[in-house]
Design brief:
The protein is an alpha+beta fold. It is 36% helix and 31% strand. Helix 2 packs antiparallel against helix 3.
Amino acid sequence: MDNYIGKHLLIDCYNCDSDNMESPRKVQEAIHDAAEKIGMAVNDTFYLDGEEEIIAAAYGPKSHICIHAYPKLGYAAVDIYSFDQDLKPARTMAVLRASLHPEKIRATSVKRGNINPDMKPNIKSKSTTLHKFKNTRNQMKTAGQKVANYMRHKNEKRDTLGPE
């Protein structure tokens, strides 16, 4: 049985309204509206208005919301993480549609923090020490061949220059 205690929602907003994307104030409003919509108490915020990117983030107990807005691209990447079972990150979709006016939204939900005591990895690593050694040996051999070819080519060019 899976016992996930965290939720992580990654949202891509495409072809957003440029007027809303270029205004740091509107991006800040979107972050506050999203936090309010899911019932997240905001303890701290962060804003950065860069040349090509506006970042707005809100931090609360066991949760955060972050928007990376790229006005020239009409794209916004939204990250909502919650370690609180009562918060429903998917409720922010309506807020994002209303504030950023994207033509298309793509959301990916990730479960975080499986605290099941019987949890065991179901994928075995294929990178053994011997495998890593063989890869390094092959990379060194290839690099050596490239250096030798370069030197040979350089010497051929040098031999053709000058008087005979």
